């Protein structure tokens, strides 16, 4: 069975296990994701909370979105910053990848990968959307942000950056 729409493909198939059992299995093919941790004046900038239909409530999330087929994830990250925080190319100082090949989001069920980025914004003033939130770019600030963010993909990016800060701090006491 194969169901398609513009957002995903649902595939039903029969697979043979290592012990020669046949099982019915469903998997989803969908676009990859990009999540950006933007840093401005030593603060993490988070766009205003927004309603998420998947969980039926308003959530606080890092800037994120889909990576179109054939699109460079870094280009998607720049478009995400423009759309969610109004950061154009002149407002972006550096954009660093947290992972090269992307992390599988759910390798058992989906082909979707998550590309994480850390963006350093210029020191210039930016017209951030009303309701944007700011957290200190520090271990404590990232831990506070982690307590507010429920999206697992966003949490993975925050944790990866937090881990990199911890490793640097341990190497340079």
Tell me what the structure shows:
It is a single chain. With 173 residues, the protein is an alpha+beta fold. It has two domains: 1-30; 31-171, Nucleoside Triphosphate Pyrophosphohydrolase. The chain is built from three helices and twelve strands; from the N terminus they run E-E-E-E-E-E-E-E-H-E-E-E-E-H-H. The strands form three sheets. Strands 4, 5, 8, 9, 10, 11 and 12 form a seven-stranded mixed beta sheet that branches. Helix 2 packs antiparallel against helix 3. The model has no long low-confidence stretch (mean pLDDT 93).
Furnish the topology, listing elements before pairings:
Layout: E1 2-4, E2 8-16, E3 22-30, E4 32-40, E5 43-46, E6 50-52, E7 57-59, E8 64-67, H1 73-85, E9 92-97, E10 103-104, E11 113-121, E12 133-136, H2 139-148, H3 152-171
Helix pairs in contact: 2-3
Overall SS class: alpha+beta
Mean pLDDT over the full residue set: 93
The best one-word shape is: elongated
Secondary structure: helix percent: 10-25%
Count of strand segments? 12
Keywords:
elongated; alpha+beta; Nucleoside Triphosphate Pyrophosphohydrolase; 12 strands; 173 residues
Brief rundown of the structure:
The protein is α+β, with helices and mostly antiparallel strands and about 170 residues long.
């Amino acid at each position: 069975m194969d169901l398609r729409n513009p957002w995903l493909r649902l595939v039903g198939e029969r697979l043979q296990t290592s012990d020669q059992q046949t099982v019915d299995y469903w998997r989803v093919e969908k676009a990859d994701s990009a999540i950006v941790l933007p840093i401005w004046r030593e603060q993490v900038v988070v766009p205003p909370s927004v309603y998420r239909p998947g969980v039926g409530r308003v959530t606080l999330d890092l800037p994120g979105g889909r990576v179109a087929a054939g699109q460079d994830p870094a280009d998607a990250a720049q478009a995400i910053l423009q759309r969610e925080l109004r950061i154009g190319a002149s407002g972006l100082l550096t954009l660093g990848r947290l992972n090269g090949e992307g992390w599988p989001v759910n390798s058992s069920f989906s082909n979707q990968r998550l590309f994480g980025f850390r963006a350093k914004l210029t020191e210039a003033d930016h017209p951030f959307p009303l309701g944007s939130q700011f957290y200190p770019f520090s271990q404590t600030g990232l831990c506070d942000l982690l307590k507010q963010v429920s999206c697992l993909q966003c949490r993975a990016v925050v944790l990866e950056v937090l881990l990199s800060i911890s490793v640097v701090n341990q190497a340079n006491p």
